[in-house]
Design a protein that fits this description.
With about 325 residues, this protein is α/β, with parallel strands linked by helices. The protein has two domains: about 160 residues, Quinone Oxidoreductase, Chain A, domain 1, CATH 3.90.180; about 150 residues, NAD(P)-binding Rossmann-like Domain (Rossmann fold, 3-Layer(aba) Sandwich). The protein has ten helices and 20 strands.
Length: about 325
């Protein structure tokens, strides 16, 4: 069978590997769809999780499918179950994030199948849509980290899949003042389709003046600021992160979910004067299945803009790496 693996910096291949056989505590899942992520691009550039390792690194951590087989001691799932695969833990091993398995393959070995990483998918949710549960959970946790409460105004900077997941989470929670900011017209359209109040183009719009118009203003000793209470930083732009701190309100909060590989200069004077809160956001809510529940409540299929077969993984990778007009790119084994 085929398996996407990283062999070294910039060296990713679709390899022929043996089909997995489940051990007593394992399950094998036939993958219906697996998303590719910006972190996969990073793994490819680095040659692995932290550079090249002794073995090729398998890719793919956003997957859903049908249980094909289980080991003799497995009780949590049975063959035929439709599942989202949560990509493991530090204690029990990762899938597609440095562990020995990855979801960009037709058949995925899931070790410790009773450990709670296989989540049932309702029949009403297509399996390709269910594969969006992992990035959706990341966006949900970003909203958690921003500590948004009822009635607050929020701005989401960056409307790739994680930013769009954050928009969907906020709208689902009843937040009526969600502004999306992205350079891509298509991504802004997707955000509006999810229920955003407005979508701004930072290339042509005065974002901070628009936020003040939409959300009102709050006083600050150097002049009024937008009253936007919370920000989700999903763009990866150092300028955006600096602007949020420089131009955000007193008592504002920012959840940083984008990958920032380089140090970002920070005005700790502004942090102090505004009593501003910056929080990192890594991975998921305490209950990963909250993402599956949201997919069952709301149709987020529009976010899944591109589907390519595993044999055309190179094209899928080029699309993700080279285009800012796509939403979630799925690989279908």
């Amino acid at each position: 069978m085929l398996q996407v693996r990283v062999h070294g910096p910039g060296d990713v291949r679709v390899d022929e590997v043996a089909e997995p056989e489940p051990g007593p505590t394992d399950a094998v899942v036939r993958i219906a769809a697996c998303g590719i992520c910006g972190s996969d691009l990073s793994y490819i550039r680095m040659g692995g999780l932290a550079g090249p390792g002794p073995e090729p690194m398998c890719l793919g951590h956003e997957m859903a499918g049908v249980v094909e087989a289980v080991g003799e001691n497995v009780t949590a799932v049975t063959p035929g179950d439709r599942v989202v695969v949560q990509p493991g833990s530090e204690e029990l091993g990762r899938i597609g994030g440095g562990g020995p398995e990855g979801g960009l393959t037709p058949l995925l070995l899931v070790r410790h199948a009773d450990a709670g990483f296989l989540h049932p998918v309702p029949d009403s949710v297509p399996l390709d849509v269910a594969a969006f549960a992992e990035p959706l959970a990341v966006g949900m946790h970003a909203v958690e980290q921003a500590q948004v409460v009822d009635g607050e105004a929020v701005a989401v900077f960056g409307c790739g899949p994680i930013g769009l997941a954050s928009v969907a989470t906020l709208v689902d929670a009843g937040c009526e003042q969600v502004v999306a900011v992205d350079l891509s017209a298509r991504r802004r359209e997707l955000a509006l389709g999810l229920g955003a109040q407005a979508a701004l183009d930072p290339a042509t719009d005065d974002v901070w003046a628009a936020l003040a118009d939409l959300h009102g203003t709050e006083p600050f000793m150097f002049g009024p600021t937008p009253a936007t209470a919370a920000f989700i930083e999903a763009s990866g732009s150092a300028k955006v992160l600096r602007d949020i701190l420089d131009r955000g309100r007193v008592g504002g909060r920012c959840s940083v979910v984008a990958l920032h590989y380089e140090p970002v200069p920070t005005s700790y004077l502004m942090l102090l004067m505004k009593e501003f809160t910056l929080r990192g956001s890594m991975e998921y809510p305490a209950r990963f299945a909250d993402a599956v529940d949201l997919l069952a409540r709301r149709d987020l299929s529009a976010v899944l803009t591109d589907r390519l077969p595993l044999e055309r993984f190179d094209e899928a990778l080029e699309l993700l790496d080279g285009s800012k007009e796509c939403g979630k790119v799925l690989v279908v084994p």
